[in-house]
């Protein structure tokens, strides 16, 4: 299975990529910089250059894959459109709708995750 992942160099993303690769899957991972692309390729993934605000790149990554894992958080994002949780969630929701993904289960997890004080961006 080919999996497209965002947030692949993060604390959670890096081990997820390692596990996917160890299980025989191929990984296409979003890379916002040359350094990130190099780190992803060194880990065995294929890097796709772009950012969270670029719907064309996100669509391309999803279209090339059998599944998508989004591990990015709306923290330290360069685009002013994504500097708030609301902007990030709206953009992600738009992409998921365009891809025909039912967000109900994902949204419930996201809400629970964000209510956990350890995961809030305002801490």
Question: How would you summarize the topology of this molecule?
Answer:
Elements lengths: L1 E5 L6 H10 L3 E6 L2 H10 L2 E4 L5 H9 L3 E4 L14 H14 L5 H12 L8
Parallel strand pairs: 1-2, 1-4, 2-3
In words, what does this structure look like?
- By secondary structure, the chain is α/β, with parallel strands linked by helices.
- The chain has a single domain (2-114), classed as NAD(P)-binding Rossmann-like Domain (Rossmann fold, 3-Layer(aba) Sandwich), CATH 3.40.50.720.
- It has 5 helices and 4 strands.
- It has a 4-stranded parallel beta sheet with strand order 3-2-1-4, with helices on both faces.
- Strand 2, helix 2 (34-43) and strand 3 (46-49) form a beta-alpha-beta unit.
- The protein is globular.
- The chain starts with a strand and ends in an 8-residue tail after the last helix.
- The relative contact order is 0.15.
Strand fraction:
15-25%
Strands ordered across the widest β-sheet: 3-2-1-4
Please tell me the overall pLDDT.
Answer: 76
Catalogue the unreliable spans: 105-123
The CATH C-level class name: Alpha Beta
| Cα shape | globular
User: What distance lies between the first and last C-alpha atoms, to the nearest angstrom?
Assistant: 37 Å
CATH topology: Rossmann fold
* Count, helices: 5
Order of helices and strands: EHEHEHEHH
- Assign the CATH superfamily: NAD(P)-binding Rossmann-like Domain
Q: What's the architecture, going by CATH?
A: 3-Layer(aba) Sandwich
Judged by helices, strands and strand pairing, the structural class is: alpha/beta
**Radius of gyration (Å):** 14 Å
Number of DSSP E strands: 4
How many individual domains? 1
**What's the main sheet like?**
4 strands, parallel
